[in-house]
Amino acid sequence: MKKLLAAFVLLVVSTVSYAQDFSTNVNGISIKNVTCMAGMINFSLVNKSDKKVFGVTVHVYDSAGDPIDNQLGMAVAEPNTGASSSILTRSCNYSSLRFTI
Question: What was the pLDDT predicted at 10?
């Protein structure tokens, strides 16, 4: 029981959340509700454009501003809709993120 409780506490403590919204390189498309847990970046894709979105790339940076990872994830959103998606990265130990379409 103690091991289960310790694993739960570790999982909760290791979750990183971002209160900010992220703009992308495409007008009208943004990323919200970003969290990272166990190397999985979860987010909501908001598509206010008139174009369909098929994928999102997350760019991960360390505290010196150096790129340490980038991963392409499948996130499909029709025009003027939203979608939830996830992208697997190496870890949640990073300083900043950038998203591109």
Answer: 43
Which element (helix H / strand E) includes 46?
Answer: strand 40-47
Backbone dihedral angles phi then psi of residue 12, each to the nearest 5 degrees: -65, -45
* 2: alpha, beta or left? (left if phi > 0; alpha if psi -120 to 50): alpha
How much is the average pLDDT of 12-20?
A: 66
pLDDT at 23: 94
pTM comes to 0.80
Cα separation, 2 vs 5, in Å, equals 5
Region at 64 (left for phi over 0; alpha for psi -120 to 50; beta for the rest): alpha
Give the span between the Cα atoms of 90 and 78, in whole angstroms.
Answer: 29
By the 8 A CB rule, do 50 and 80 touch?
yes
User: Which CATH fold topology does 16-100 show?
Assistant: Immunoglobulin-like (2.60.40)
